[in-house]
Structure formats: C-alpha cells, structure tokens
Amino acid sequence: EVQLVESGGGLVQPGGSLRLSCAASGFTFSSYSMNWVRQAPGKGLEWVSYISSSSSTKYYADSVKGRFTISRDNAKNSLYLQMNSLRDEDTAVYYCAKLELLPIWGQGTMVTVSS
Amino acid sequence: NFMLTQPHSVSESPGKTVTISCTGSSGSIASKYVQWFQQRPGSAPTTVIYEDNQRPSGVPDRFSGSIDSSSNSASLTISGLKTEDEAEYYCQSYDSTHQGVFGGGTKLTVL
C-alpha cells in the first residue's frame, strides 16, 4: 500500500524548534521529489517546501525561508522538516506530500506554537 | 508572484453538473500540470485529478479535469452530483521556479 506517515508534531513555545518526519512506503521514494504543505486552522492549503529526488534542489515559501530546512534520507525512505524560530503563525497541520505524477498525501501532524 | 484563483463557494443539486474554475494570474497555465484535491472536514486532502485530466484509480469518472488556454484557467467538472461530493476542492500547480502554488479552495455544497 502506498503510504506517507508524518510524525513529530506537538506544542512548542514561540522561538522554539521542532523536527517533523515523514515515512514513505509502497513506492520508490528515491525516484520522486517531495513537499511539505501546511494548513492553518480554518484556512486553505499552503505549500511550504520542496526537495528534489536527489536533494540537489530545495525550495521554500517566503514565509519560512531561513527558518525551515527540508531534507531526506533515501536509504530510510524518509523526509524531514527542521523548523526553527517558530512563530504563532506557523501553527498548522503539516502534510508530507508527493505532488509529482500521481499525488499522495500523508494524514498530517499538528504543530501548535503557543506560550 | 504566480497565483491561482478559485471561486470561494459553489452549490448545486444532486444529479446535476458543477464546474469549479482555477485561473492563473500570469504566464500560461498550460505550461505546468494542474492537480485537483478534495478535502472533507477533518481529513487529509485526496487526489481527484492529476496532470490536468488524469483520474487516480478509485475516483469515479464523474470527475474530469480540463485546461482552457484562452482563459488561462483549469476546470474541475463533477457530473451526477452526489451528497458525498460535498467537500472543499483545491487546485494546485507550480510557478516558474517550480515552487508549489495552491488555489484558495472552493467549498462545494450539494443541496
């Protein structure tokens, strides 16, 4: 079964850090680019970051540039998002998504930034 | 910055046909693939159309996608509407630097 499973969300204070993980299974993870997409409570989908299959190319939304870092480990079929200097407005459900060819989404992990 | 604009909401009766538009702000929407995602409350998005007009297995053929270069827009058409189609629908494509872009979402009400 093709599957993406996120983990690592939780409650963090403003200015804090969190690392999200996404475990892929059921497809050749190393062949595809991957993305992080988030959704603030009651809001629409917001693209956050992209990484190419070989990690050679990375893109970030302006809202997270300089604070978030995307990475992957193809040997472990895993995608990561290191989030630093977190702000209240980063509160959202974070989805791991393969948007290339036939898109696949994870179930999401909630990140709450609050004091 | 490249943006995708969708109507905030649409409504139609069961059994009817509805079309949701997704208009690109600049460039040619036909130059990058467009995807359509369905999201029900409390659930993750699922793919109903990818690469402009392809349906994943398991998605009924009542769902179809198209591109209109003259209006620089993509469309999702759902025919034979069912109450289970009630959901939020998002279009997605890429800007010139291959950064992801989502439309603001369209709430479909089937009444």
- End-to-end C-alpha gap of chain B: 36 Å
Helix content of chain B: under 10%
Note the overall shape of chain B: globular
Rg over CA atoms of chain A: 13 Å
Strand content of chain A: over 45%
- Give me the number of helical elements of chain B: 0
Look at the structure and give the mean pLDDT of chain B: 95
Helix share bin of chain A = under 10%
Give the integer mean of the pLDDT values of chain A: 97
Unreliable parts of chain B: none
Oligomer: heterodimer
Largest sheet of chain B: 6 strands, mixed
* Percent strand of chain B: over 45%
Largest sheet of chain A: 7 strands, mixed
Distance between the termini of chain A: 39 Å
Low-confidence region ranges of chain A:
none
Biggest interface reads: A-B, 19 and 23 residues
Task: Give me the count of strands of chain B.
Answer: 10
Order of helices and strands of chain A: EEEEEEEEEEE
Kindly name the structural category of chain A: mainly beta
Rg of chain B (CA only): 13 Å
General description of the model:
The complex is a heterodimer of chains A (115) and B (111). In chain A, strand 5 (45-51) and strand 6 form a beta hairpin. In chain A, strands 2, 4, 5, 6, 9, 10 and 11 form a seven-stranded mixed sheet that branches. Chain A has a four-stranded antiparallel sheet with strand order 1-3-8-7, with no helix packed on it. Chain A is built from no helices and eleven strands. With 115 residues, chain A is mainly β. Helices cover 0% and strands 50% of the residues of chain A. The model of chain A has no long low-confidence stretch (mean pLDDT 97). In chain A, 37% of the residues are buried. Chain A has strands at residues 3-7, 10-12, 18-25, 34-39, 45-51, 58-60, 68-73, 78-83, 92-98, 104-105, 109-113. Chain B is mostly beta strands. Chain B is built from no helices and ten strands. Chain B has strands at 4-5, 9-12, 18-24, 35-39, 46-49, 63-68, 73-78, 87-94, 100-102, 106-110. In chain B, the strands form two sheets. In chain B, strands 2, 4, 5, 8, 9 and 10 form a six-stranded mixed sheet that branches. In chain B, strands 1-3-7-6 form a four-stranded antiparallel sheet, with no helix packed on it. The model of chain B has no long low-confidence stretch (mean pLDDT 95). Classes of the chains: A mainly beta (115), B mainly beta (111). The interface between A and B is medium-sized, with 19 and 23 residues.
